[in-house]
Amino acid sequence: MQDTFSSELDALLKCAPDTKGLAVALSGGLDSMVLLELAWRYAQRENLALCAIHVHHNLSADADQWLDFCAQQCEQREIAFFSERVHIGTQTRRGIEDKARQERYQALDSCAPAGYVLLLGQHRDDQVETFFLRLKRGAGLKGLGGMQALSYWHQRPLLRPLLGFSRAELNDYAERQGLLHIHDESNDDNGFDRNFLRNQALPLLSARFNGFYKKVAQSMAIIQRQQRLLDEIAHDDIANAHGQSSLNLTSLRKLSDARYHNALRYWLHSHDVVMPSEKQLQDLAQQLSCARADSQMQVPLKRLHGLSCVLRRYQDHAYLCTEQPSLEAQRLSTDCTSVTLSDGTVLSAQAGEGVRPLEGAEQLSVRFGQLSSVIRPHNKAHSKKLSQWFKALQVPPWQRQRVPLIYYDDVLVAVVGYFYNYDYFSKNGVQWQCSERPK
């Protein structure tokens, strides 16, 4: 088993070439103890740093004992050990599972040293259970494909090197090696859907159909390959619709309904959006396709990791926008070359084609949302309100309030990222730039 595990981990680590160490998610149960033992032997052979992380969920009266057990097992092997307590609160049964998973990954990521990959102990039986859980929720190919051997939590690689092993194989290995492990009594509560499948439904199917778990896992591997093909098609369709920051709906409408929905699903997933149901996705596609050109469509969505965003439509483009607080005006020093705005965006000035330098006692400031200010751009023949210039430039309405505006005293002299005031323009002046265009 060690050789097979090592080969699988070797292959996964090739996808994370800058790995500085391994961090094992250690609950103390059978799966994680086998993972700890296999990873410990692998790290010794490869001379690779190793640590283990235990998350204390405060959900069991035995949780303190489990923490002590994990610490002792790591001490015996001279493995660096970290732990963190999380509070789940009162939730529904499914809510507890989902909340615990989110809190666990967050805690694992915060405890793991920089550059370490996280090793998780899910195995083939877990994969089959996941298939049936998602099947009863009406999941599509991506959901039915189950867990990936390599995924990410924010930028942290998550590796699952045990997906090719059954629970029985892990149990046999633990017995041969004399590995101790704890038993979480919550796994006996069939009120949880996963436990019901594990303890009652799936054993019946396995007894009836020879090689049941293995065949389901094979089907899931096929589904994953088919999903990768759909992702490749969607990637090309998205590229033809002008990239990642927005979707050109005119281009997407030229596709078949199936490819249109596939591209939309891929785009949402690439932005870490929690995937809407099939009906919700169809409704979104309908709204994006059929809304009036001047409509201000706003659909709230959730991102992974508890964040939120809004799907907007403007000038036949779709945008995913994160809600942000209003930006604050700032008085700048006359010799200012760089300033961090209240949203973290960096505004900088350098010599170049732009606004003429300050003269005399002129005061320098950055303001936002002054859309009624009148300005003549350096490349235009007349003056108009800023709101009218933004409309002509097709700047989405929600972005207009976040564009930095440079003032000399009370005169708007630069609309950062767009143009300069004709009366203040200089070929050898000050060029203002943002490190990232506000969204």
Could you characterize what this model shows?
With 439 residues, this protein is α+β, with helices and mostly antiparallel strands. It folds into three domains: 2-208, HUPs (Rossmann fold, 3-Layer(aba) Sandwich); 228-321, Chorismate Mutase Domain, subunit A; 330-434, no CATH class. It contains 14 helices and 20 strands. A six-stranded mixed sheet has the order 3-2-1-4-6-5, with helices on both faces. A five-stranded antiparallel sheet has the order 11-14-17-18-19, with no helix packed on it. Helix 3 links the parallel strand 2 and strand 3 (80-85). The mean pLDDT is 89. Residues 364-432 form the Lysidine-tRNA(Ile) synthetase C-terminal domain. This is tRNA(Ile)-lysidine synthase. One of its GO terms (cellular component) is cytoplasm. ATP binds at residues 27-32. InterPro entries: Lysidine-tRNA-synth_C, Rossmann-like_a/b/a_fold, TilS/TtcA_N, tRNA_Ile_lys_synt, tRNA_Ile_lys_synt_N, tRNA_Ile_lys_synt_subst-bd.
Please give a quick description of this structure.
Its main location: cytoplasm. The chain is of the alpha+beta class and about 450 residues long. The chain has helices at about 1-15, 30-45, 65-75, 95-110, 125-135, 140-145, 165-175, 195-210, 210-240, 250, 255-270, 280-290, 385-390, 395-400; strands spanning about 20-25, 50-55, 80-85, 115-120, 150-155, 155-160, 245-250, 300, 310-315, 315-320, 330, 340, 345-355, 365, 375, 385, 405-410, 410-415, 420, 425-435.
